[in-house]
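User: Can you model how adenosine-5'-triphosphate sits in this protein?
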Amino acid sequence: METSPALEFDDVTIRVVGRTLISEVAWKVAHGEHWVVLGPNGAGKTTLLSVASAVQHPSSGAAWVLGHRLGRVDMRELRSRIGLVAAGRRLVDEALMEEEGATAEAVVLTGHTGTSVPLWDRYGPAERERASTLLASLGCGDLAQRPFTVCSQGERARIRVARALMGDPGIVLLDEPFAGLDLPAREDLIEALEGLKPTSVLVTHHLEEVPATTTHALLVKGGGVLAQGPVEEILTGENLSECFGRRLLVDHSDGRWHARAHNPRARAAADRAAGWIPGAAPETAF
Ligand SMILES: Nc1ncnc2c1ncn2[C@@H]1O[C@H](COP(=O)(O)OP(=O)(O)OP(=O)(O)O)[C@@H](O)[C@H]1O
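Assistant: Here's the modeled complex, given as structure tokens:
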């Protein structure tokens, strides 16, 4: 049993020329926890993941990933123990796979070497067997020989998760894995994520995409942490309203979360339709 946390940030700051992208972030993820990171556009979510995935180290402060301090460890070696799912090019470069005409199976196999092109001499029967088992477990066993470029967005999303699991990672990091998915594809992927065994961190914009197995939440705003802790304490209307700068109503049912903007006119119309006297019911925006 691992004793050190899966992730630990001690006042992590990332600066680029003339800008601070994230500032003094303190965060600890224990093994076995499943975190969601929420926040508006530009809040710093992908930047946080770029540190957690050992893609870049802090400008100041310190970060430990799977017990290794960034800056004092072979980053490539460490990356091979991290399962990373990201559709954008900042964290995982899929351009080479597309140029090479890689099949879904080849893309999953690259997860074994942590590379963006297949290294065929490194994959034997055991790796191929694992790739095909993972594709099947994510409901895309029949896609193995299909070029990744022609796969639909929903198929690609699940192939990326299979790729991330290929190296038997100690932690899985997912940056907006639902982008571009229709409702059934999104729900299929949420179901697949609910079966994830390793510790995970999911970055998303949408409360509706938070899997029911999520244990903790981190809210980011303007490059800083607004709130963090057990999911039920953090995903409140009050916190989310502050995070997104808009008054929000939050529901939690059957383990899943829903948010919508507070709309007093629609609320009054619904109350009238239900026979409520305006002003008689208490306001329950948060
Ligand atoms: N290399 C860079 N140079 C300058 N600014 C950058 C760089 N990388 C990111 N940024 C800026 O840092 C801020 C945070 O970016 P980041 O991608 O982490 O936000 P995010 O929360 O993931 O946003 P989104 O939800 O829109 O994907 C943004 O304003 C972005 O433009």
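A couple of observations from the model: DSSP finds ten helices and twelve strands in the chain. Residues 91-168 form one domain.
User: Helpful, thanks.
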